[in-house]
């Protein structure tokens, strides 16, 4: 055991001195003990990543990853996942990273975000980089209430009411906000609104979303007009179908009535049965007077 500040001596279990050991500085003992304890307590670094424990940084850039790696230490402050092949972000990917401040996801192939995928990020998040991906649509449900500076440029966005509402809630980076371009957009009234239609990408394709909104374009208004027209068309179709049914029903009844009348006309006429008329005379004798038509069939 260590005795004093300048030397370490080894004693036997019975307490007898066995000899002088190696002389160690007491601070070196403390340092070795701390290193051993830290090595046991420190979390493991995910495969294909490099971890800098002094800055709580996990570096997974250019690692050929196709999914968010598992086992990211919960104490991570800065996470670099740029320049990989990640396609989607599951809902629980960052659930335990409550101290995360910088999240770099640029230059991937992300085309979908699970509902609430970024909702679990804590209030300490300062930067969220999703630039240079394949995102077309996103909503407030996926981003939650994050107030981090957000980069969304160089994505093939479909500009519609949902994206407009998202832009109004995010803290977009001023230097890159004009790079959020509409690859397609909600089309004019009556033309539909699905970006998958290859026939038309909308009149605002190729323009900056923020500039369009600043100029007074309201995608929510366009979408409501499209919805109103669709409702009117639907109501007209139903009304037309009701009229057609009523006309058909009346004509069917008329045809049935005509057939029934023709059937009645085709029946044979009733035969008249003569009735013998007798007349009593004074001697209670009956004499035949004639016949009377009773009209009985």
Concise synopsis of the structure shown:
With 297 residues, this protein is of the alpha/beta class. The chain has a domain at 42-223: Ribonuclease Inhibitor (Leucine-rich repeat, LRR (right-handed beta-alpha superhelix)). 27% of the residues lie in helices and 19% in strands.
Structure, explained:
Helices cover 27% and strands 19% of the residues. It is α/β, with parallel strands linked by helices and 297 residues long. It has a domain at 42-223: Alpha-Beta Horseshoe (Leucine-rich repeat, LRR (right-handed beta-alpha superhelix)), CATH 3.80.10.10. The strands form 5 sheets. A 7-stranded mixed β-sheet has the order 4-5-6-8-10-11-13, with no helix packed on it. Strands 1-2-3 form a 3-stranded antiparallel β-sheet, with no helix packed on it. It has a two-stranded parallel ribbon with strand order 7-9. Strand 10 (127-129), helix 2 and strand 11 form a beta-alpha-beta unit. It starts with a strand and ends with a strand. Residues 1-43 form the signal peptide.
Helix count, per DSSP?
5
Give the mean pLDDT. 77
Shape descriptor reads: elongated
Determine Rg (CA atoms, Å).
46 Å
> How far apart, in Å, are the first and last alpha carbons?
137 Å
Helices and strands, in order, run as: EEEHEEEEEEEHEEHEEHHEE
> What is the strand arrangement across the widest sheet?
4-5-6-8-10-11-13
Percentage of residues in DSSP E strands: 15-25%
CATH topology of the domain at 42-223: Leucine-rich repeat, LRR (right-handed beta-alpha superhelix)
CATH class term of the domain at 42-223: Alpha Beta
- Using the 3D structure, state the CATH architecture of the domain at 42-223: Alpha-Beta Horseshoe
CATH-assigned homologous superfamily of the domain at 42-223: Ribonuclease Inhibitor
